Amino acid sequence: MLMGKAGVFIAERSAQIRPFAPLTAIGPTDNVTPLSGVFRAHIMAEIFVVSAIVSVVGAVLMVARRNPIYGLIFLLVSFSGAAGVFYSLNATFIAVSQILVYAGAIAVLFLFVLMFIDLGKKGEDKFPARVDSLSTYEPAAVEEGKISEGPRFQFSYPAAVVAMTVFALFVWVAASLPEETFDKFDPVPIHGPAGPIREDETNSKSSPIYFGSTAAVGRAIFERKGPFESFALHYEVVGLVILVGVMGAVILGKRIGDEQREEQERKLKAAVAGADGHDDHGHDHGHGHH
Amino acid sequence: MEELFTPTKVLILSGALMSIGVYGVLARRNLIVMLMSLEMMLVAVNVVLVLFSRMHASEGMAGHVSQHTYEAAFLGAHTGQIFTLMIMTVAAGEVGVGLAILVALYRSRNSIDVDQARELRL
C-alpha cells in the first residue's frame, strides 16, 4: 500500500518536471497536474510514521551499542529519520539542513575524533560500563582469545528508570493538551499573489511560496516586517557564537609546546612544594605543641 | 495511518527522543556517546519547534482580509523554523568545543572515561 502510493507520488511529481524547459516556464505554469490536498496528507502521514520509527530505533541502538563507532552510525540513521519527520511537517528547508549539518558536518566531526583517539589496548576494557549496568566484560577471556570482543550492548537500570520517568512526564503533558487543537493537522495554506491559495490552485497564473520552503524561510529571516522585527541581527549574533566556538576549539585543541609544558610543570611543582612546606610547618608546629 | 499523524503523536515522538538522550547521558561513561546523546536531545527540541511552526501556519490563516497582514502572518509562522536553524548552529559550535575538550582530556588522561576526569585541570 505504502509503496504503491509512494510510486504514484513520485510519478506525479516527476510529471511536473519538464526537462530543458525554458526559464520563463518557472513560476507561472499552465499545464502542471496539481496534487490534491487529501492525497498529500496521506503521504505525509506515512512519511511521518516510517521516519519516526527509524528515528527512535536508531536512537535506541545508538545509546545501547557499546562501541561508539557503531553508535555513530546509528546516530546517522536517527538523524535521517528526524529529517523525514521535518519533511512530513512541511519544513523542507529544515529537513535538508538537518541532513547537511548533522549528518554531513557533525557526524563527520565525531568520526574524525573517534579515529583520532586510540580507544585502548587489546585485552583492556575500552568502553567500560557503569558499575550497576548489565555489561559483563572479561578482559582475561578476550586475552585468551575465547571471545573476540566484549558484549555488543550495554544497559543500565537506574538510567532507564530516570529516562522512563522523563518519557512518562512527556506523554502525560502531551495527553493533557486540548484535543481540538492537537488531534489533527489543518492543511497548510500556500502563499499566493493575493492572499492564501489552495493546493489545487497552484497552477493558476501565480508563483506560489510554499510553507517551509527556502524562499519562505529566507524571507522570514531577512524581510523587515516592522522596526526590529527582522531576524537578520539574530542571525549575525549566531554567526558570532559559532566564531567564538571555533576559536575556543582551536585554543583547546592546540598542542602545548615542550618548553611551555616544562614551564607549567615547574610552576605547578613550585606551587605544590610551597603548599606542602606550609602544611609541614603547621604539622610540625602542632607536634611540638603536644 | 492518519490517526498516527497528529500533533500529540509528534510530541510523544519528541519525548521519546529526549528521554533516550537523557538515558544516554546518564548510562554511559564514554564522553563521545554522551555528546551524541546531547545532540539527540537537541534534535528532540527541534522536532517540537518545527511542529509548533507547522501548527501556527495553519491556525488563523483564513481570517486575513488584507494581503499585508496575511503575508506578515505567513512569514511569522516560520519563527519556529528559524529558531530550529539557530539551535542547529549552536549545536554545531557546542560539538566543536565539546570534542576539543575531549581531545585535550584524552591527551592529558589517555582516556575519555568521564569517571577518570575528576579535576578541572587538564
Shape of chain B: elongated
Strand content of chain A: under 5%
- Computed CA radius of gyration of chain B, to the nearest angstrom: 20 Å
Find the structural class of chain B using helix and strand composition: mainly alpha
Cα distance, first to last residue of chain A? 91 Å
Structural class determined from secondary elements of chain A: mainly alpha
The average pLDDT score of chain A comes to 74
Major beta sheet summary of chain B: none
Question: Tally of extended strands of chain B?
Answer: 0
Q: Helix count of chain A, per DSSP? A: 10
CATH topology group of chain B: Helix Hairpins
- What is the gyration radius of chain A calculated from CA atoms? 29 Å
For the largest beta-sheet of chain A, the strand count, sense and barrel status come to: 2 strands, antiparallel
Using the 3D structure, state the CATH architecture of chain B.
Orthogonal Bundle
Mean pLDDT, all residues of chain B: 85
Shape of chain A: extended
Euclidean distance between termini CA atoms of chain B? 53 Å
- Catalogue the unreliable spans of chain B: none
Annotate the secondary structure layout.
The complex is a heterodimer of chains A (290) and B (122).
Chain A (H helix, E strand, L loop, with lengths): L1 H15 L20 H28 L3 H21 L3 H25 L22 H6 L12 H19 L3 H4 L7 E3 L2 E3 L16 H9 L9 H22 L4 H32 L1
Antiparallel strand pairs in A: 1-2
Chain B lengths: L6 H21 L3 H28 L8 H10 L2 H31 L13
Helix pairs in contact in B: 1-2, 2-4
